[in-house]
Amino acid sequence: MAYIEGFVIAVPVARKQEFIEHGTSMDALFLELGALRVMECWEDDVPEGQVTDFRKAVQATADEAVVFSWIEWPDKQTRESAMTEWETRAKSDERYQMDPGQMPFDGKRMIFGGFEPIVVLNA
Q1: CB under 8 Å to 53, separation ≥6 — which residues?
Q2: Residue 96: per-residue pLDDT
Q3: What is the mean predicted confidence (pLDDT) over 4-30?
Q4: CA distance 84 to 64
Q5: Which of 5, 25, 80, 111 has its CA 20 to 30 A from that of 41?
Q6: What residue segments make up the domains of the chain, in order of their start?
Q7: Which strand (E) or helix (H) includes residue 28?
Q8: Around 81, how many Cα atoms within 13 Å sit in the side-chain half-sphere?
Q9: Is 10-115 assigned to CATH 3.30.70.100?
Q10: Three-class SS string for the chain?
């Protein structure tokens, strides 16, 4: 069964194009490692909650947008193998080498996790 890895981050609105370029590059690498699909979604309708919400969860400031992303893997084993391969390639493949200070978002405020689908409906 598919395995989903999800992310929520805050990205400065002024760096949207830079984020798109970063996502396009990095997401291609996930596909090389076996991902079936990668989605990067820019905030469009993110309401303020009474207790919590997406913006609060990532401590987004007024000049930041929330990005909701996910990677669909064929299964958890493929995802685990991909992450092992990612670490191996990070040492030798220049495409994997990133300066954290050059990232178009603050990775310390990223929320992420792996999820096993429990309900899947298709059209």
Answers
A1: 46, 47
A2: 66
A3: 95
A4: 32
A5: 80
A6: 10-115
A7: helix 16-32
A8: 12
A9: yes
A10: CCEEEEEEEEEEHHHHHHHHHHHHHHHHHHHHCCCCEEEEEECCCCCCCCCCCHHHHCCCCCCEEEEEEEEEECCHHHHHHHHHHHHHHHCCCHHHCCCHHHCCCCHHHCEEEEECCCCCCCC
Helix (H) or strand (E) holding 16: helix 16-32
Structure letter (DSSP) for residue 99: -
Cα–Cα distances in angstroms (integers) from residue 5 to residues 19, 77, 82, in the given order: 19, 12, 12
C-alpha to C-alpha distance for 49 and 122, rounded to whole angstroms: 29
The conformation of residue 80, written as its DSSP 8-state character, comes to: H
For the entire predicted model, the pTM comes to 0.89
Strand partners, 10: 66
3-state DSSP call for residue 89?
helix
25-34 mean pLDDT = 93
Q: Which residues, 6 or more positions from 117, have their beta carbon under 8 angstroms from its beta carbon?
A: 1, 2, 3, 4
Q: Tell me whether strands 37-42 and 111-115 are parallel, antiparallel or unpaired.
A: unpaired
